[in-house]
Design goal:
Diaminopimelate Epimerase, Chain A, domain 1; 6 helices; 264 residues; alpha+beta
Length: 264
């Protein structure tokens, strides 16, 4: 049995940047164990699977170890595959997901714009294992789906060398670290670690910006923000807070397309 697969670099204007996601358009759902096995075999931070449901595509995301409730970069990659590889010409692409209906459009610069749920963080008393796992003491710690650890400078965020095994003790999907950006055109920077999901460090994390955007919008007093994820690959995101939604915009590039051979 042959299954089409694409690999797309999301939140980047050039191949080998941003965050690579695998995308598999399905005619009908495979069982969850097979979807998880494909994601484990791909060994990327996320593999997206979608089935055409008529007015919307039903979309699911898997890390190498678990299915997740929201993934930004693989949603962007799925929209890219539909519009750039499969010739879908809808003005807006709608996805039914575990986080509700998500919409992807294009802006005047051709960037993909993801309409995602805002997940504002709340104060949280972090366990000592967090600082030990990060290798640095944050100034403040908040919690939404993911833990948000705030530092005073971009340099501190860049220099962190986390202990993945220690971070597995933190009771959340992932740990976001963030600080104000040094560059005049960047409002804030971040990194994202999710060893519990099989991801030591995610290169660029759209879903993390569902939490970062409401936090920095309130702190900086503006709803439109330029963000940079300062992983080794790096990526740029353009974010906007609109009530209980977050718009996250970015580019994408096709790296690879082919087919999988699955057991009948």
């Amino acid at each position: 049995m042959k299954q089409a697969i694409y690999q797309v670099d999301a939140f980047t204007s050039a191949v080998f940047g941003g965050n690579p996601a695998a995308v598999c358009p399905l005619e009908a759902w495979l069982d969850s164990a097979t979807l998880q096995a494909i994601a484990a075999e791909n060994n990327l931070s996320e593999t997206a699977f979608f089935v055409d449901g008529g007015d919307a595509y039903h979309l699911r995301w898997f890390t190498p170890q678990v299915e997740v409730d929201l993934c930004g970069h693989a949603t962007l990659a799925s929209a890219f595959v539909l519009s750039e590889c499969l010739g879908v010409t809808r003005e807006a692409l709608e996805f039914e997901t575990a986080s509700g209906r998500l919409r992807v459009t294009r802006d005047s610069e051709g960037r993909f714009v993801l309409d995602l749920p805002a997940r504002a963080p709340a104060p949280w008393e972090a366990p000592p294992a967090l600082a030990a796992g990060l290798g640095g003491e944050p100034e403040q710690v908040l919690m939404a789906r993911d833990c948000l650890a705030l530092f005073g400078s971009e340099r501190e965020v860049r220099q962190l060398a986390p202990d993945s095994e220690a971070l597995k003790a933190i009771d959340c999907l992932g740990v976001i670290v963030s600080a104000p950006g040094d560059a005049a055109d960047v409002d804030f920077v971040s990194r994202f670690f999710a060893p519990r999901a099989g991801i030591a460090e995610d290169p660029v994390t759209g879903s993390a910006h569902c939490t970062l955007t409401p936090y920095w919008a309130k702190r900086l007093g503006k709803n439109r923000l330029a963000a940079r994820q300062v992983s080794a690959r790096g990526g740029e995101l353009f974010c906007e807070l609109r009530d209980d939604r977050v718009l996250v915009a970015g580019e994408a590039r096709l790296y690879m397309e082919g087919s999988l051979t699955l057991p009948d």
